[in-house]
Amino acid sequence: MTSTIKLFVVDDHPIFIDGITGLLKDTPGFEIIGTANNGKELLEKVAVRQPDIVLMDINMPEMDGIEATKELKLNYPRIKVIMLTMFNDIRFIKELLEIGAKGYILKNISRDDLIKAINTVSEGKPFLDSAVQEKVISSMSAQDDEEIDEKEADAMVQNITSRELEILQLIALGLTSQEISKRLFISKNTVETHRKNLLAKLNVKNTASLLKFAYKKGLV
Known about the structure:
Layout: E1 5-10, H1 14-24, E2 30-36, H2 39-46, E3 53-56, H3 65-75, E4 80-85, H4 90-99, E5 103-106, H5 111-122, E6 127-128, H6 130-142, H7 150-158, H8 162-172, H9 177-184, H10 188-201, H11 207-216
Helix pairs in contact: 2-3, 3-4, 8-10, 9-10
């Protein structure tokens, strides 16, 4: 028997909040415990009652979804954030995934896919809807400035230790260094060292390039 997933909906348009709450209120396993019209109001309310997942818009007055996500991850790392927005912009997608959002979906998403997104993120897995996935893949393809010879790439893979591979797979799931350290019972500094070693061994500059290499070589 699964426990109820407690949700918080954040958007500066009351009619949208009403639509989401109406869509989910009778769905078994979900409970909407609060709403807010901006990030500042959200942070005030979660200090009293904390949800499992926040469904959050990006463009809001006083405090937008980007700043609110940063504050949530800093002060309430247990709370997972799904961006629910009309902005299908790779800059927003990358930034929000980098700062810790676990999902990124568009407002035209179907009810079934919204439920799937919530359940997937609740299990600790990342979720991008199909349109967002296409955007990310296109962006990764456009950044093909470091094509590596296949034999050289295979040799790089052979240099990865089992612990580094384990950490790489957790990075691909969207876990932060702090979350990985808790999962593996090692220090955050040790995780960061493994991250740096992976970047060096695979000759990539950042996490996005690291994940691109890992997906290409079937490591994750």
